[in-house]
């Protein structure tokens, strides 16, 4: 369905990109569900992160679609790397965001897709195949969930915020003093992994997310969605995220909350 009810109306050129992105999310979700809670062959990368047949299969399906419809664009996928890194327009793909969740049967794994022009995210998709949810965000065009507009909350103070701490075990290992500060922050705190806390922020359910040790295919698609929904996403120094960022990430609903989080992470 190209124009679902209540969809955000986009200019023709960007609408075409959004239509393809939505179709890619559908194809990727169908492929992922075909593997989910089945018997998976699991391998481990050099950093000991797992990769399954599903990761490889979903990325292969997406790459084929992009090769057929956008042959002049570059593709940066988690499993097969960068093709066409010198191209002005690049698609960035994380086929299964949360492989550990996926292989353990946990439904909060995601599919991430981004569209970059000169390295700047113009479009982002956060797909949640097991939940049948697709968040689409486009630069200066707003964000939607299954075609209906969404936006971030108006929370300005950390003391009032629902705060998610992603990759808490790694933060505790590498930054114990910060972990201690995080445990004293927020009105409500939750621990999590992967993309869904950022998606919940874009929907207005969560106010802030601290994340750590991410790769470009983890954060750039999400950045487009969060910012299109009215939020702010940066590295821990407050700088905009790009292909060379160090993987330490803050998402916040408002500038005031973002500023307070920057003070928190930097002690």
TrEMBL record:
One GO term (biological process): signal transduction
Co-factor requirement: Mg(2+)
Residues reported to bind Mg(2+): 78, 94, 96-97, 218
InterPro entries named among the record's database cross-references: Inositol_monoP_metal-BS, Inositol_monophosphatase-like
Transmembrane segments: none
Pfam families in the record: Inositol_P
Keyword Metal-binding (UniProt): yes
Coiled coil segments of this chain: none
Keyword entries, A-Z: Hydrolase, Magnesium, Metal-binding
Gene Ontology molecular function: inositol monophosphate 1-phosphatase activity; metal ion binding
Lineage: superkingdom: Bacteria
Family stated for the protein in its record: Belongs to the inositol monophosphatase superfamily.
PANTHER family: INOSITOL MONOPHOSPHATASE, INOSITOL-1-MONOPHOSPHATASE-RELATED
Protein name (Swiss-Prot/TrEMBL): Histidinol-phosphatase, inositol monophosphatase family
């Amino acid at each position: 369905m190209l124009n679902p009810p209540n969809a955000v109306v986009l200019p023709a050129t960007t609408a075409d990109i959004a239509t393809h992105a939505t179709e890619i999310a559908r194809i990727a979700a169908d492929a992922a569900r075909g593997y989910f809670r089945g018997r998976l062959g699991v391998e481990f990368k050099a950093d000991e992160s797992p990769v399954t047949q599903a990761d490889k299969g979903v990325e292969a399906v997406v790459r084929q679609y992009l090769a057929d419809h956008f042959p002049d664009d570059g593709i940066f996928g988690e499993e097969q790397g960068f093709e066409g890194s010198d191209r002005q327009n690049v698609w960035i793909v994380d086929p299964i965001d949360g492989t550990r969740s996926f292989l353990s049967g946990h439904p909060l794994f995601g599919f991430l897709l981004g569209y970059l022009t000169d390295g700047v995210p113009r479009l982002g998709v956060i797909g949640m195949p097991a939940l049948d949810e697709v968040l689409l965000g486009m630069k200066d065009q707003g964000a939607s969930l299954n075609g209906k507009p969404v936006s971030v909350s108006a929370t300005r103070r950390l003391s009032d915020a629902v705060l998610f701490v992603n990759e808490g075990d790694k933060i505790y290992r590498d930054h114990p003093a910060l972990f201690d500060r995080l445990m004293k922050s927020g009105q409500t705190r939750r621990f999590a992994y992967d993309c869904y806390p950022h998606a919940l922020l874009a929907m207005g359910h969560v106010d802030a997310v601290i994340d750590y040790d991410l790769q470009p295919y983890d954060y750039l698609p999400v950045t487009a969605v969060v910012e299109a929904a009215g939020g702010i996403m940066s590295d821990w120094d407050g700088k905009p995220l790009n292909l060379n960022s160090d993987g330490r990430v803050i998402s916040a609903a408002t500038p005031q909350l973002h500023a307070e989080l920057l003070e928190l992470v930097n002690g």
